Amino acid sequence: MIDVLVVGGGNAALCAALMAREAGARVLLLEAAPRRWRGGNSQHTRNLRCMHEAPQDVLVDAYTEEEFWQDLLKVTGGMTDERLARRVIRDSSRCRDWMRRHGVRFQPSLSGTLQLARTNAFFTGGGKALINAYYRSAEALGVQIRYDSPVTGIELQGDRFVAVHLAAREVDGVRRPAERIEARSCVLAAGGFESNRDWLREAWGQNENGDWAADNFLIRGARFNTGTLLRALIDSGADAVGDPTQAHMVAIDARAPLYDGGICTRIDCVSLGVVVNCDGRRFYDEGEDFWPKRYAIWGRLVAQQPGQVGYSIIDRKAVGRFMPPVFPGTAASTLGELARQLSLPEAAFVETIEAYNQACRVGTFDHTALDDCRTEGLSPAKTHWARPIDTPPFYGYPLRPGVTFTYLGLRTDETAAVHFSGKPSPNLFVAGEMMAGNVLGKGYTAGVGMSIGTAFGRIAGSQAAAAAGHHPASMTAGQDHAIA
């Protein structure tokens, strides 16, 4: 019999599989996607947010536990479990040597990401390279890996895991029969429900016109994250945590593909200009905080606008100060021409930009600091990086909500166990996006999803191995294999 069954194929699942295998467990990993699409949302990532008390290789200066915690507290508005959040933060300071042993390489921050040089460690080759390294290591260690294997159901005896079920399916022209797979313990790391349009509709409801709000969402992440197991566990009595409408939701280019657009579809010039809705009106402070701490609120903000669209507007002064998106912006020599090209109401749009320009109080512009360039007497205000949009050519980027992953998940504790009526399961564990809502009640800050997945993937793998009768050689606090 399999000792540890891991359901999922991204960062958290691979960390769990590697830790369980290192402990001596016989491990089977089931990835719903075909091999070429393996890795879930992790393939689209770039970095890991890391606590460190002093400069460390690719990380400059220091990023203390308390500063990390305060950053997380700010973006979540206090909607976070401090015990679990601090566990993630502390584990982020000691995971990178383990990651290197499994083939992950890091590089210094590049141009356009220098503001993260103190807080985030970037993967050489990005998330795809990290995923490939983990799969190579898992295969070398003897982890069994099966692709095209979406789990459709889970079998429990009370709070104890027994088996998973796979429906009959066709893979590469070959009919595979339905299966039941037993294991001594199980780690669930199969992502959120962002690719389940029906569930998104259920969560977001209908607008005043009777249209389903979620129908205009693009799925920035993996198309295979349908939430099947999340729904099955909640229906079976597992304790849930989080709001189904809360998500890592980014304002992305409206021309992006429906699935798997990844980071290149993000529009990063928001804080350098203004954002208007389809009525040509601003609706939020574009300079509220540093972009890595605020980029993931803009998808939700756009989703709340008429037609669920927005437009990021900049002028020539902003060019070269942000990571260019994959699609070029619409360019015009006048504001009126830009409005016409974007099909915005010209008079309202020009009035909005002119009112903004008149309200700007420009001091010393510095996009790397919370500078003193602000608006005065304008609502909503722009509190930093406010400069008049007055230097042609002018550019506009159409925006739509892009969902990376949802926050509704399974409640857990420091052991990563799934809870039923407040009590932890003895052999069922959860990691990654399926439990991220314990830490992320709302909001996001760059790289913290990978921090959560890495920390709880490793915890869940160790705990699952122990539940199956295998224990790491060293359980000394502070070492790589330590668990709470």
TrEMBL record:
Keyword Flavoprotein: yes
GO molecular function, one term: oxidoreductase activity
InterPro entries from the UniProt entry: CobZ (IPR012831), FAD-dep_OxRdtase_2_FAD-bd (IPR003953), FAD-oxidoreductase_2 (IPR050315), FAD/NAD-bd_sf (IPR036188), Succ_DH/fumarate_Rdtase_cat_sf (IPR027477)
Alphabetical keyword list: FAD, Flavoprotein, Oxidoreductase
Origin: domain of life: Bacteria
Name this polypeptide is given: Tricarballylate dehydrogenase
Native source species: Azotobacter chroococcum NCIMB 8003
Cofactor(s) this protein requires: FAD
Ranges where the FAD-dependent oxidoreductase 2 FAD-binding domain occurs: 3-439
